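Much of what follows relies on a compact textual record of a protein's fold. A record is reproduced here so that you can trace the correspondence yourselves:
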Amino acid sequence: MTTRVLIVDDSATMRALLSRLLGSEPDIEVIGTAADAMEARGMIRELNPDVVTLDIEMPGMNGLEFLDKIMRLRPMPVVIVSGVTKRNCETTIRALELGAVDCYAKPDGSVNALLENDGGDLARMVRSAGRIGRWRAPEALQQQDRVQRQTIAVSTVNGVGTRLIAIGASTGGVEALHHLLPAFPENCPPTLIVQHISAAFAPAMADRLNQRCAATVQLAEPGIPLQEGHIYIAGGNERHMVVSGTEKLVTRAVPGDLVSGHRPSIDALFESVAKALGPAAVGILLTGMGQDGARGLLAMRKAGGRTIAQDEATSTVYGMPRAAADIGAAEKILPLPRIAERALAGARA
């Protein structure tokens, strides 16, 4: 199966470079390039690409404005291609919240640096995006644009016995976390998140979520004690984030091979949580491609923990949650707006 790609970038040099990177792949066809949103809009109508790569910084209508129009009028898989600067990272996270599939970090330096350092990453992102099929914004989030923003009442947390919440997400996860985490109260149990995202953009994701949440959102640091009211996001792609300890819980960064195709892996986090906390933990598996997290969620359920998977209607990609449902790993399968209350409540009914 060939993935047909439209490249949108205001730089002629970058358009040529991206065309070279992607066009050299036997299963990817670059069907066109556009220098701005107006040109891209006409080419999308005419060529009907499987995937669009989109630059953020463009003259006229910028990438965010164009992406918003795509997601409202003609939803389709979009991979953001962005430079790694503080401003670009923040804007890229906003693009993921709007529904972009993934983000490709353009390395600093010369054109040759990009060619030498790519390592096939862009092609892999485009290939994965193409496998999604026709992109759609999650139905329930379209219908419930004003998702409940109030935090869950503190009284639902007290006395639960939940010492930790572990969350895994992939494609569409930044958008899902944007809806889920603002409902967590300032005294929520320590919460650990593995979101499949480039390490270059993880700090900006943590900063943006921290601005929106009552709890403190930060990148996880190895060895720090886990505190109530804190949400920790795995920040790198070289080590797995796991939990250890009994009375005093800490995160550890563990080197190792890819697990379920990823590092950090959701499975690695969930399995460590099952071992360390047993019934005193809650596992949540959100939208994403593949199967990472399904096996670990099952381990948590077998250890007595409560386990939740996002339902199909509110998932951007119902891959990982489906895998969990298929093997009986999810105690509950819920729409995104109901997950926070369930995770923070003590009742199992």
Remarks:
- Residues 3-137 form a domain with the Rossmann fold fold (CATH 3.40.50.2300).
- The first strand starts at residue 3 and ends at 8.
- Residues 53 and 307 are 35 Å apart (CA to CA).
- Residues 142-148, 154-160 have pLDDT under 50 and may be disordered.
